[in-house]
From TrEMBL:
Alphabetical keyword list: Heme, Iron, Metal-binding, Monooxygenase, Oxidoreductase
PROSITE patterns to which the protein is assigned, alphabetical: CYTOCHROME_P450
Top-level division of the source organism's lineage: Eukaryota
Similarity-based family: Belongs to the cytochrome P450 family.
Protein name: Cytochrome P450
Pfam family, one: p450
Cofactor(s) needed: heme
Native source organism of the sequence: Tetranychus urticae
InterPro entries: Cyt_P450 (IPR001128), Cyt_P450_CS (IPR017972), Cyt_P450_E_grp-I (IPR002401), Cyt_P450_sf (IPR036396), Cytochrome_P450_fam2 (IPR050182)
GO cellular component, one term: cytoplasm
Gene: 107365164
Gene3D superfamilies in the cross-refs: Cytochrome P450
GO BP field: organic acid metabolic process; xenobiotic metabolic process
PANTHER family: CYTOCHROME P450 508A4-RELATED, CYTOCHROME P450 FAMILY
Gene Ontology MF terms: heme binding; iron ion binding; oxidoreductase activity, acting on paired donors, with incorporation or reduction of molecular oxygen, reduced flavin or flavoprotein as one donor, and incorporation of one atom of oxygen
Length: 148
């Protein structure tokens, strides 16, 4: 189960569905690092840049669920800078429910099916950006029922 949660975390990190949050307005003068943000400035949270920042993620373009596992692999740990549901006061109130649903849906699928693509199909993280990100080339998935 820890590896399943680590897998979900890594999918959310490497393939941010929403690359940028909605516009927000600074409610007061703010300083972040060396940057001054005056009151009423429109700001946007760039999830993509956080999720691919090499200062936060070693080898950020490599898919590696083990980055969330404790040393003995007994627990998946979600770092505070993994923010697929935004962050702060305005993060998604359904985050907890979404994680339960993602976990249950994924586990049910992999328990019942062997999921494959056609031999020779090349999988890619290439995406098309719009309001949300979507795969540029979605392969045809083959679901073979697992017989118990």
């Amino acid at each position: 189960m820890p590896f399943t949660m680590a897998f979900i975390h890594e999918v959310q990190r490497i393939e941010s569905i929403i690359a940028n949050n909605l516009l927000r307005r600074a409610s007061e003068d703010t300083k972040i690092g060396n940057h001054f943000i005056p009151k009423d400035t429109l700001v946007m949270f760039n999830f993509w840049s956080v999720n691919h920042d090499p200062n936060l993620w070693p080898n950020p373009d490599k898919f590696d669920p083990t980055r969330y596992l404790t040393e003995d692999g007994s627990k998946a740990v979600k770092p505070p800078y993994l923010i697929p549901f935004s962050a702060g006061k305005r993060n998604c109130p359904g985050e907890g429910l979404a994680y339960v649903e993602l976990f249950l849906y994924l586990v049910c699928m992999v328990q019942r099916y062997r999921i494959k693509v056609e031999p020779g199909t090349e999988l890619s993280f290439e995406a098309v950006f719009g309001i949300s990100r979507r795969p540029a080339n979605l392969p045809l998935f083959i679901f073979e029922k697992v017989v118990h």
